[in-house]
Amino acid sequence: MHERALTVAGVFRPRTVGWSRFYDVVLIVGGSLIIAISAQLSVWLPFSPVPVTGQTFAVLMIGALLGARRGALCILVYLLEGAVGLPVFAGGAAGVPWMIGPTGGYLAGFVIAAWVVGRLCERGWDRNVIKTACAMVTGNVCLHVSGVIWLSCLAVASGSGFSLGRILSVGVYPFVIGDVIKVILAAVLLPCGWKLLSRMDSGKDN
């Protein structure tokens, strides 16, 4: 296994400059499409303006697999796709109005979460079950903090008044169980993936 491969994507990255850049572009654009597809796996809760989607898992895994820089760029490309009108958001939504609505804070949090998780995984956190879980929890915290701050701003701007309990009840609590499941999945898949790569590399050496 390449010593400088800090993420799973780094293991397969070509060494030549031209091909490595092409490889990065394919990963970034492909990752944005995966996030767009995962956004369509959405469930709208009657008491929350924020849908439950598969995006969070996709965003965190992309950050872990691609690393901080490529992961964050992937999210920015995804947001650009939505801003120009492509139906990449939950339920096929698109456009700037959607991006500055109730989900706006979470969309911004995607960039932060992907970068943070990617940075942690570049330091080897995705090789260990406990550290992988901690990286994913950290990413989820980044998402929710960003989302709560934005929902709070919207509440104040609309004149409906600010209530942290109310914000948490619609923007955080409904997603806790799903977040726990996603963390467990990532904590199993990522270390197992590295072990598989290590065995493949050992087999080549033999």
Describe this structure in words.
- The chain is mostly helical and 206 residues long.
- It has a single domain (8-201), classed as Orthogonal Bundle (Arp2/3 complex 21 kDa subunit ARPC3), CATH 1.10.1760.
- It contains 9 helices and no strands.
- It has helices spanning 8-11, 17-39, 55-66, 68-83, 96-99, 104-122, 129-158, 164-171, 176-205.
- Helix 3 runs parallel beside helix 6, helix 3 runs parallel beside helix 9 and helix 4 (68-83) packs antiparallel against helix 6.
Tell me the strand percentage band. Answer: under 5%
End-to-end span in angstroms?
Answer: 13 Å
Largest sheet: none
Radius of gyration, in Å, reads 18 Å
Secondary-structure blueprint:
Elements: H1 8-11, H2 17-39, H3 55-66, H4 68-83, H5 96-99, H6 104-122, H7 129-158, H8 164-171, H9 176-205
Fill in the keyword field for this structure.
globular, Arp2/3 complex 21 kDa subunit ARPC3, 9 helices, single chain
In short:
The protein has 206 residues and is mainly alpha-helical. It has nine helices and no strands. The chain has one domain: Arp2/3 complex 21 kDa subunit ARPC3, CATH 1.10.1760.
